[in-house]
Input
Amino acid sequence: MKRILIKSILLLMGILFLFCDFSFATDLSVRYTYNLSDRITYNRYNIVLVVDASGSMRSTDGSGLRFDAIGKFVALLAHRGNRVGAVVFNDGIVFKQEMTDMDDFPEKKYLIGNIRNISPRGDTNIGRGLQTAVDMLNTDKDPNLPSIVLLLSDGNTDLPTEDEIALSLREKADAVQMMMESDYKVFAISLNADGSANSAELLQIANATSGEFEEVTKAADLDAVFALYYFLIYNAIDYQNVTKTFSSSGEIEGTFEIPPVGVEEVNIVLSSNVTDYTLTSPDRFYAKNEIASFAYIAESYTIIKIIDPLPGKWEYYLKGVPGDSIQINIVYNTNLAAVLSIEPEIYSYMNQPKSYNYMMNDNITVKVRLEESGENITQEQYQDFQATLTVTDGKGETQIFSMEIVNNGYLALVQDDRKVNTENLARRTAISSFAYDLALTKSGSYTLEAEVAGVGYLLETESIIINVENTPPAFIQNIEKTIKLWPFAKNETEIDLTPAARDEQDAVLRYEVESSAFNNDEYSIDGAILKMTGYSLSKGLFKIRAIDSDGAYCNFEVLIKTVNVTFWGMMLLILAALLALGIVALSTWILLQKRFYGTCYVQQFDNEGNYYEEQSFTKGRGRLKLSTFEIDNIGFRTDKCYFQATGKRHIFLCMNEYVYGDGSIGKKFHIDGDRFGVTIMKDESSAKGIRVKFQSQLPDPYKWTDYSDLRSKI
Output
């Protein structure tokens, strides 16, 4: 709820901020110099712009307002430290700028100019655009920075042939999987100006990567969304947003206040050009000729960037056309962060995610320190802030505690973990933080988060999980499943999640989907079973949480791969099945043509050792059912059993179930043609059954024959 509220506020600020057309300037480096070899990693990102240049853009954004929105986003980026690349796509890749350190306005202007120069044409290949962006990040990102893809399209995957669409969808599936595995977030915008865009496709990509999604119905709203995304990504502060009118003398004056900590850049955004402008900082005056060498002035807007400004009150002076209105927006790029920690750190290495284990009533000191570009702020600066700690148990119940400022000693130059360099003790600085002593009286798992507010900031920490006399589930393995998709079938699949995690205290775990490459209506979880009913991607990844009864959890992944059994593939399978049936039918027909060349005999006996009259039957060929003989109550069905002719001196007795016959168990018994009997019973313990024989008419090749009569006739 808190994130939705913040997002709504930022969107409103973005709409106010970008109600009119703006422009940007290069940076005004007032007092900051730096070594290019230094790398800033706080509040910096790898960013790839992925922009649709299909033919439909000529109608959905004929005025090219998207370029202004993208340009402002790039211009507001901190003067150095971000690594930026771009991909422009239609039915293929029409422009690609490899990732580069975006450290100056000329580089930013060059990037946006190249994107603007692409004429819209062709179809929409979102998969190729995403795959290209992922490849760029994988090969040329700064590994110390998080990565984001900014995706803008006015449609959905749309290509001339089914094969091209299938390839694009496979590339999209591969790209989404890699982004989920690498924690690349997609901030997507659907420009649904003519109502024909399938925004669900971009929403699916954003949700899968834990990113953001916005839909707009006119190109003029793109400015507000890009501004919203800038504030969300970079924690920027929209300090001032006003509209003023030039006086009869054509002048406007105003002021803004820079907080004492955390502002590394000030961006002064003007909605139109001005003929003259000056700035006055707390320690000096800057004339236009000083600012102009750093400012970039476009046709309809200007952004003046002040790097590492002095805290305090600043004044600006603008000169323009009397009576004209101008929108003035002041945006602060910040470098202040709140970092949560606990003492003592009793960490479990056996589970996911990182968690800490304690006993009930253990004293846990929770601390929040404020860092400016990774360095602790001074004790005096803490006085301008307040901090609150939120503790949430496994059932979702929360408690909120106010935190106090404490002095944690002094910071000095350290040689190693044990020794302090005494020669530099004079340089020591007091180390402060917010703190709260927490003692939990119930077993279970708890999530700790803190919030720090003051001088225009609202900072949220990352969360920490602690377990009190509760062992979290242990990760065992990820799951991979390949599913064959048959034409004209529901193709519903159930996947057992229990092999992925195990808990020492709970035999049954609860499972929740944290993120999925598939749409929400394509899957569900019922107990420990993941049910798949739809497959919008050829493969997709699930990130799933296994949770015990006290709320502790571990994470694992389920990878779903699909194989489409096409119509022709199905036809081949049917032909193979028909061929197999033909072979069986032919074999059966051949067997039915075999002759008996003899007589079959059956004699029944009962539990008391009584033998009934022996029966005989002579058949020409094929099969002779056992039910032909008048026998009953022998423990198996005679109508399902038969004698099979072979055309030789023996036959087979074939049963429909396993029975006991003369010391062996089987369903098929060899009956010799010399009337040597075989006893058949239901099982070895049975005392009733039948004795079967066969008398062949064919001569025995192994038996001596008297040929005397034949010689006498000769």
User: Anything to note?
Assistant: Confidence is low (pLDDT under 50) at residues 9-37, 412-428, 710-714. The longest strand covers residues 398-411.
